[in-house]
Amino acid sequence: MLTQQELKQNVAQAAVDYILPMLRPDVVIGVGTGSTADLFIDALAAHKASFRGAVSSSERSSARLAALGVQVFDLNDVESMPVYVDGADEIDAGLHMVKGGGGALTREKIVASVAEQFVCIVDESKLVGQLGGFPLPIEVIPMAVGAVARELARLGGKPVLRDGFVTDNGCRILDVSGLAIADPAQFEARVNNIPGVVTCGLFAIAGADVALMSTQDGVRQLRPASS
Ligand code: 5RP
Q1: Are residue 9 and residue 85 in the same domain, yes or no?
Q2: 3-class SS at 52?
Q3: What is the mean pLDDT of residues 184-190?
Q4: Catalytic pick among 108, 139, 151, 188
Q5: Would you tell me which of 17, 155, 173, 208 could form a disulfide with 120, CB atoms 3.0–4.6 Å apart?
Q6: Domain residue limits at 113
Q7: Which segments of 111-182 are extended strands (E)?
């Protein structure tokens, strides 16, 4: 029986194998944040001579990449990336995701939006029938925390301010439980419209293009159920 850590290691290595054909000396790739992304960074570093560098979605991942000798680029200096690789807190069969457990959701959404392909790396515990079991992280401008929390309560959620946590962008996170998200893209658009919301942790309007899912029987490749 593989432990969760071994499942994460397997999918991190599978992600490196998946992107290897995309690597060229002039290629910059997008790299996410979290414990699975950390393992991906560690496995990626063995191939650092094969590509130019990376744009990362957090100060934490940038520091890890740099420590392993991978050059880190500012997104403003990069026009295109073939791929963005990141974990998720939940993923459904349509490859819509809840992200932001590590608080990096805004930069994750930005870097992913520039990449041609989002490769989500998860272990099988992250696959759900309906999103919303994991409290939905929402990044909020500090002065709007109370107003946004009241609006989320009106939408049926129970928002809790992530205690003592400030994002890389100087903002706060509300973790919203009690949501059964029947239509993820519609709910994402609804939350995006609340004044003071920087980013909703739903990645549904633009989900993953492929998910690599680590199971006891190996790493499975999932494509969106509708495609
Ligand atoms: C960070 C994220 C992560 O991808 C998500 O929290 C999953 O993390 P882990 O790989 O540690 O389970 O969205 O903001």
Answers
A1: yes
A2: coil
A3: 98
A4: 108
A5: 208
A6: 4-128+205-222
A7: 118-123, 136-140, 158-161, 172-177
Are 112 and 143 within one domain? no
Atom nearest to 58 CA in ligand 1:
14
Q: What is the 3-state secondary structure (H, E, C) of 166-224?
A: CCCCCCEEEEEECCCCCCHHHHHHHHHCCCCEEEECEECCCCCCEEEEEECCEEEEECC
Say how far apart CA 9 and CA 20 lie, in whole Å: 17
pLDDT at 226 over 80: no
Q: 102 Cβ partners below 8 Å, 6+ apart? A: 33, 34, 58, 60
Residue 225 has pLDDT above 90, yes or no: no
Is residue 151 flagged as an active site residue? no
pLDDT surpasses 80 at 179: yes
Give residue 114's identity as a one-letter amino acid code: V
- For residue 227, pLDDT beyond 70: no
Residue 116 and residue 73 share a domain: yes
Q: Are residues 18 and 89 in the same domain?
A: yes
Q: Is the pLDDT of residue 140 over 90?
A: yes
105 CA closest ligand 1 atom index? 14
Supply the pLDDT for residue 180.
Answer: 87
Q: What number of other Cβ atoms are within 10 A of residue 135's Cβ?
A: 23
User: Is residue 31 lining ligand 1, measured as CB closer than 6 Å?
Assistant: no
Domain containing residue 100: CATH number: 3.40.50.1360
